[in-house]
């Protein structure tokens, strides 16, 4: 029913493929318009709207090292560095 279409990005002017699967997804969601930007331009636009992410420094509850996290740590909950957090997730 759907076939891949080649579209031109209105942001960078490069061609990108609007796949049959993407077209089916758009149709299921009731979207009327085709995408106007390629994936990289859509991603850049989303990230620019968010602004830079703020990181906080805390002490890892497992190893005592420095942990940089994208949320403000609360004293009632433990915070783990990325290595300890990954190790704990692997055990579950």
From TrEMBL:
InterPro entries: CxxC-x17-CxxC_dom, Zn-bnd_dom_prob
Annotated ranges, domain Probable zinc-binding: 3-48
Domain of life: Bacteria
Domain CxxC-x17-CxxC: 53-89
A Pfam family per the record: zf_Tbcl_2
Record's protein name: Zinc-ribbon domain containing protein
């Amino acid at each position: 029913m759907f076939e891949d279409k080649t579209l031109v990005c209105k942001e960078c002017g490069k061609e990108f493929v609007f796949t049959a699967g993407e077209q089916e997804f758009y149709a299921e969601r009731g979207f009327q318009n085709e995408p106007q930007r390629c994936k990289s331009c859509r991603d850049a636009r989303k990230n620019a709207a968010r602004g830079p992410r703020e990181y906080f420094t805390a002490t890892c509850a497992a190893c005592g090292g420095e942990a940089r996290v994208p949320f403000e740590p609360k004293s009632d909950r433990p915070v783990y560095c990325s290595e300890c957090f990954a190790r704990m997730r692997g055990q579950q």
